[in-house]
Structure formats: C-alpha cells, structure tokens
Amino acid sequence: MFQSFIKSMGLAPLDSYVEPRLSIGNVVLDREISTGHFTVQVDEEARAVFIRNNKGRVIWKSLHNIPFLASSLGDDEIIPMEYNDSLYKIVEHDEKATRLQTITRIAPSGNDTVIIYGGLGTRIAPPTHLSYEFIIKELSPHQLQFTARITERDSPMANYRRLFLTYESRKEEDFYGFGEQFVYSSLKGHKVPVLIRERGHGCGGPQTSSFFSSAKSFVEGYFSGDDGHCASYVSVPQYVTSDKRCLCLETSEYASFDLCEPDRVTIRVNNSIDNDLVGRIIDGDSMLDLITEYTSYAGRMQPLPDWINKGVVACIQGGSAKVRQIVAQMEQHQTPVAAVLVPDWCGQRLQPLTSTVALKRLWWHWEHDEQLYPDWQNLVEELRRDRNIGVMSYVNPLLVPKQGAKRDLFAEATQNGYFVKISSKKEMIQSGGLEAGLLDLTNPEAVAWFKQVVKQQFWDVGVSGMMVDMGENLPCSIEGVTLHSQQPSSAYHNRYAESWARLYQESIEESDLDHQPVCFLRSGYTRSPQHLQLLWSGDHNVTWDQTDGLKSAVTGMLSGGFSGFSLNHSDVGGFTTIEGLLPGASMSRNRDLLYRWMELAAFTAVYRTQEGILPEKNAQFYQDEETYAHFAHTAQLYAALAPYRKQYIQEAYEKGWPLMRHLVLYYPDDPTVRQIVHSQYLLGPHLMIAPTVSPSASFVKVYFPHENSGISWRHIWTGKYFEADGSYKVVDTPLGQPAAFVKEPRQDDGLLNDLISFANHYYSSIASSSSPRSSSLNK
Questions:
Q1: What CA–CA distance (Å, rounded) separates 381 from 566?
Q2: Burial, 349: exposed, middle or buried (Cβ in 10 Å; 0-12, 13-18, 19+)?
Q3: Are strands 699-704 and 727-732 parallel, antiparallel or unpaired?
C-alpha cells in the first residue's frame, strides 16, 4: 500500500532508488599519468579523478565518491512560440538516470593521451550497463581535450544517449561567460541553457513577443526562471571562473550547465547523432590568459577599420530626403559622423497589430526600394564623396515575395531549393508574426547564390556595411525540418549563426573593394568570433531595467567579452516599444533614457543609434536643438577616444581580450568586484566607466578596488583623484558628464590625451558659460 502511495505521488519506488557512487577497481593504477604538460590520476583514497597542470595545480576534479559520468532517458521539449519560430521555451526531461559508475582501468595512449575505462549503470544487476571511455588528450601546453564516449550497451540501455559530466566547484567560485548573458554577471547558483534564441520568452518585461501574445505571456515569461533569464542570441557552452578555470564544449546540440549546487558543476548534453561529449579544459595563470588561450580555439574578431572609429553611426529611416536633411543638421552641430544606418533601404511594410497600431516592418527582399530611395546609389556615393560618410544597410537570411520587385529573389530561391524545408502545413517559418523562407546554409549552392546577391546589392553599390540580423532563426527540431546536409536541425541550429557570419566574411574577402565594410551581427555560437568584426547586443526594451533595458545592455556587452566576443555595442535608446497594444500598457523612450544611453555608447566599441520599432513614439537624437546638442557632445566624446580605442581593438585581435572589461579580470579575489553586474566596467586597462543607468539620477556610486599604494583614479571632468582603497565613493553625474576615470600614474602612453583635453575644455566652458547648449545639457 505504501509503495502504491509513493507511485501515486509521482515518486520513484523505494526499491528502485540506488545511492550514487563511484567504484574503483583493484587493478586501477593509483598514480599520476602524464600527457606531457598535464597529469591525470584516479585517487583511490579520495575516490575521485584529478587533473593537474605542470605546476601541480588542480584544474579539474571529480567529487568524492560521486559518478562524474552519467546518462539518462527522456525527450526534451524545445517549444517554439506560435508567432515566432526562434523564440523557445525549454523543458528538460530525465528518466531513469544512471547512478553507478565504475572505473575498471586507466592507461596512457601514446605520449599525449590518457584513457579511463569503465561502466555506467542504473543497478548493479545486468542488463543495465553502459561501457564508456573517458579520453583526455593534450592539444597544447595549455589545452586538454576530453571525450566521453559510450562504447557498448546492454539492449535495455539502447536509448541512453544523453550524457552528464559532473565535477567539483567551490561555493565561492564565480562563473562568467556562456556567450552573452543579459541578467546575471556571475552565473553561480543558476542553470544556464545553451541554445541560441531570441530574447522574448521570459526576459522579465514586455518584449518583442508582447506584440504577438496576450497578457498571459507577460506573466509566463516573467516567472520562467533561468530558462528565460538566460535566453540569449549569443549562447556558448563556455565559461571562465574567478578560480582561473575555463572549460568549453565542442559539441553543438542543446546543452545546459547546472551551477545551482555550491560544490559542483553538472553539464548535460543531448546527443541525437553520436554518443560523444567533447570539450576542452583550458589552463592559464589569469582570467585574461584563459581568454587568450580559449580564443586561440574559438577564433578572434577582426579589427575594425579606422573609418568607423572616427564618429557615430546614426540610424535614419524614412527616405533619401530625410537622410540628407538630418545629415546636414548633424554637420551644423559639428557631430563627428562615421556612417548613417538606413535599415529601410529595402522598403517598409505595415504590420497591423490593433485598429490603431501598426508596426513599420522591413521588406525582406534584398533590393533598394524605389519609392523611399529612388536614388539609392547616388545617395551612397554622394555622402561618401562629399562628406566622407558611409552608408550602412540591413539584411537577414529571410526572403519574402514583393510585388513590383525588379528581381524576384524569393522565386529564385524557391525554384532552386535554397530554403530550409518545413514539413508542416506552412512551408515558411514564422518570425515576429510574419512568414518567410529561410536560407538553407548547409546547401553550398544556396550560400554561393546569396553571396552573389550580397555582392551585387551591397558591395557593388558601395555600401559601407550592414546590420546582419536573425542568425538564430533556424527551427530547432529533430522532426519536421529538412536540411540539404540531412543533419538534424537540432545539431545544426547553433552552428547556423556561425555559417551566417562566415557568409558575410567570405563575401567581403571575395570582393575587390576599395574600402573595408563593417558587418555587425547579434547572434553567435562558439566559433563565431573568427568570422565577426562587430557584435551588437540585440533588441532591448526602451527602459532602464536589468532584465532587458539599459542595464541589461551593459551586462550583455561585458558578458560576451569572456567568450571571445571582444567588440560589442548596443542600440542607443533600445528598440522594443509598446504603445496602445494592451489596455494600460505603454513603453516608449523618453529623453532621459536616450541621453544616458548616448553617454554609455561613447564608451563602447561603436556608437550607433536606433529609432526603435515605433519611431514616432520615441525620443530621437534629431528631435530638436537640445537633442542634437547632446548627441553632438557625446559623439565628440566618443571621437576623443579614437586613438585609445584603436590600440585595444588591435589587442582584442592579437590576444582575444575584450575592449569592455569586467573588473573581475583584474581583481578576481575581490568579492565586491565579483558581484558587479552593470554598475561599472573598464574600457581597456586604463579607463574606468560607471554609467548612469537609473532614471532621474544625478550621481553614481563607484567602487575603487584596492591596489598597491600610490594608485588612484582621476575623474576626467573635475580632475579629482579617488584612491584605490577598496571603497565606494559617490560621484556626481550631471547630464553630459558620465562618470569616467583615468588610472594614475598614467600608463596609457598618451592615448587618453585627447579625452582629457576634451573633458577639460568642456568642463571649463560650462563653468564659465550660460549658453543655451550648456544649460540644456545640465537640465
């Protein structure tokens, strides 16, 4: 009767429970076996496996008497939202997991490899057995590759294809990275799903998903926990810790990292193709060293050309006349401009949401719109020739038919089989409530065809670069999706973003261009950095919040730097706007948010504005004299940093180090630093920034980590020195004077001279002047 009660409660019967344990055979050698620069040891007394570097430091260790390998049954649910095939809710299912692990033998294989042999089981009694090999191979003096492989199965274990790897951590060890994380800085205490997807479901506030769902989705999203809060366009199975440890996976299917238990890490990987779990353990003397070593595998972002470093990228939509008029106004206000971004070069189409609200969406048909831009090529040539301003445009891997198009790209792709095949009733995917065909990037002919489209429509016209969007759109499903390569979409989903970035890199390399274009993307996976020049942090709300507003933009840009995404920026002012969609719901950009986001942008890799999805509802930089003045001031601030930025953009290419740096990279033992999320960061090693990220704020609290005697930080505006004594200080941030500090004694080789001169001149001018410009910037 008691067993029936247990079963009715959904619990496992008592006689089915087996205490997890690790058994070590009597013939296992209890000694260190060398791979060259590392040693592997099965320690019988500790009942654990140790991996040490050549200095004797333990860089990986299993837990005492706990299996470090396990497997389970169960089909996960990766559920797309009905209005957007790149928005997912993930529900993991694990049944009848193995709890027993044996180690029967450990042996060297050649001079660089050690193999641990053994078995996994749900019970001691057969037939509940899986044989495995755990292969540890030295790839370099600082990298070990590990492979967990199932070699034999008892027949009842045929469907045990999921693998778990569990190993030791410390309660005090903080974990950073995993691509771009927008809510948390350290991920210790959380479970991180690794699947590239749009940030809509579960971001903790009204999102793009809000346009296509009811109020229920708001609540569902808010309470979705780590699955939602850790959703990201850039999702990477890699981390760097404050204990100077780094690990990454080489596999591409859905994985999760469970960091909830204080003493352990559990990696969970699906395997629909084979039975291997493959990854790397990275060794280094510092967190920066670990990033350098990791990016030697993942690849490093290409240096940005000088032209984009000289000024802002201003987003302007609405036609040629509007572009010319705003460019002239920026010139009158002495705004340094590198380029204008014209997303609607391909035309606008209205997407009605209510009887009074419609979104201005783009025509995903990649040729210029004759109504908005009848003189498109002349506009591009004129701005470049007469004002030395580039023109940037927009593209994504989706195609739709467009009436009146000169060339029917959609029909060409359909006839030649260049789209991903969807076996459901609809042959096209859903993206933001719109249907479109998605390019199959596993088809070499489709890639070659679209590269020719890119060359003709962009590079031949003289466009200076593009927002390259939506690399996360491949549906993540084993069934119902057919790729040219015949591989499961679940295995290629994350790789799609890498292929999308590679297409644009190759299109540039294959073209004979007299200028270097810049493409910026929002999606990425492990090896995307080698194909990228610039990342942007995706669609943010036009709000201040830490889940998807201004604060989250800072968090995301800093997080990406741990995973090799060294050059990043965000949409100034945010993108997602709500107005009149739900009763009482309103979310639009005010001037305070726009101005503070402008100040933040001055201290990032690229300063680029964004009008938002409902431009007429948002404050814009071109709105009036006051907005133009603040825009010009912050653009000049950005331009003053050009020599300094150029130096550390080059360093990013040479070492993989991010331009925007979390302070933990320099102060990993400081518990206060480890918990910083969005309140401050370093731009390069010599400039500390504390952005104003709260509404109506006139000051910030800045933490100055403890340094050796004689180190201080000089406020760029007032010249005041703040001692590096491990304390918080209150710093005033009147509008136009974001909190920025130069490290003293200076070691920047004069690269910050222009910044200091600009700040001194500005501060002196507002102290002695009551001009309309200076007073408006300090309202």
A1: 32
A2: middle
A3: antiparallel
What are the CA-CA distances from residue 17 to residues 67, 96, 97, 100, 123 (Å)? 15, 10, 10, 11, 9
98/686 Cα distance (integer angstroms): 51
128 and 263 together in one domain: yes
The pLDDT value given to residue 226 = 67
Residue holding tokens 């948010």?
593
Widest pairwise Cα distance in the chain? 88
- The reported pLDDT for the residue numbered 258 is 97
Average pLDDT over residues 693-720: 96
Q: What is the mean predicted confidence (pLDDT) over 37-57?
A: 96
For residue 393, CA distances in Å to 377, 450, 521 come to: 12, 16, 12
Query: What is the CATH number for 720?
Result: 2.60.40.1180
What is the number of domains present in the chain? 3
Residues 68 and 201 in one domain: yes
What is the b/e burial string over 650-665, where b = at least 16 CB atoms within 10 angstroms of the residue's CB?
ebbbebbbbbbbbbbb
pTM here is 0.93
365 within domain boundaries: no
Exposed/middle/buried for 769, CB within 10 Å: 0-12, 13-18, 19+?
exposed
In a domain, 316, yes or no: no
Q: Which run of H or of E encompasses 761?
A: helix 753-768
Burial letters 163-185, b for 16+ CB under 10 A, else e: bbbbbbbeeebbbbbbbbbbbbb
- Domain residues for the domain of 449 are 396-527
Percent of the chain with pLDDT over 90: 79
Question: What is the 8-class DSSP label of residue 457?
Answer: I
Token pair listed for 732: 């005033």
Indicate the pLDDT class of residue 584, thresholds 50, 70 and 90. low
